[in-house]
């Protein structure tokens, strides 16, 4: 199962607008993408509510994973968003 560790770059963490953008990108992937805070339980990354209850703040490390055909590309796409300051756009 491919996975990638990234640091949350948005100043508000994975809340509000950043959570919506990440959830939209994750839901658009051909496989289910999961996200977890380091050492925590994974949640479905395609759900804004799940992302917000994850309570991943600015600077927190998260692990993004997926399984199946296209998992590498799905993990990379979601990881790129999480590692970008989405509030600055």
Automatic annotation (TrEMBL):
Keywords: Cytoplasm, Phosphotransferase system
Main location: cytoplasm
SUPFAM superfamilies with a match to the protein in the record: HPr-like
Pfam families per UniProt: PTS-HPr
Cytoplasm found in the keyword field: yes
Record-linked InterPro entries: HPr, HPr-like, HPr-like_sf, PTS_HPr_His_P_site
Domain HPr: 1-89
Organism domain of life: Bacteria
Subcellular location: Cytoplasm
Role this protein plays: General (non sugar-specific) component of the phosphoenolpyruvate-dependent sugar phosphotransferase system (sugar PTS). This major carbohydrate active-transport system catalyzes the phosphorylation of incoming sugar substrates concomitantly with their translocation across the cell membrane. The phosphoryl group from phosphoenolpyruvate (PEP) is transferred to the phosphoryl carrier protein HPr by enzyme I. Phospho-HPr then transfers it to the PTS EIIA domain.
NCBIfam families the record matches: PTS_HPr_family
Protein name as it appears in the record: Phosphocarrier protein HPr
Annotated source species: Amycolatopsis ultiminotia
Phylogenetic placement of the source organism: Bacteria, Bacillati, Actinomycetota, Actinomycetes, Pseudonocardiales
